[in-house]
Amino acid sequence: MAERAGHGVSAPAPPAPRPPEPVRPVDERVPLRRLVPLSAQHVLAMIAAPVSTTFLTGQALGLDAARTASLLSATLLLCGAGALLQSLGLWRIGARLPFVMLPGGAATALFLQIAGDHGPATATGSVLLAAALLFAVLPFYARVVRLFPPLVMGTTVLLIGIAMIRVAAQLITGPRGTPGYAAPSAVLLAAATIGCTVLLLVVLRGVWRQTAVLLGMGAGTLIAFTTGLGAFAPAGDGSPGALALPHLLPYGAPHFDVLAALPLLVFGLTTLAEVTGQTVLNSETVGRDSDPGRDVPRVARADALISVFGALFGTSLLVTSAENIGIGRLTAVRSRFVTAGAGVLLVLVGLLAPLSRLLAAIPAAIVGGSALVIYGIIAVMGVTMLGRALPGAAAGAPGESAYPTVAALALTAGLLPVVAPDLYQGFPGWARTVLGSGVVAGTLAAVLLHALLHRFAPARRPAS
Question: ∠ CA(400), CA(403), CA(406), 5° rounding?
Answer without folding.
Answer: 140
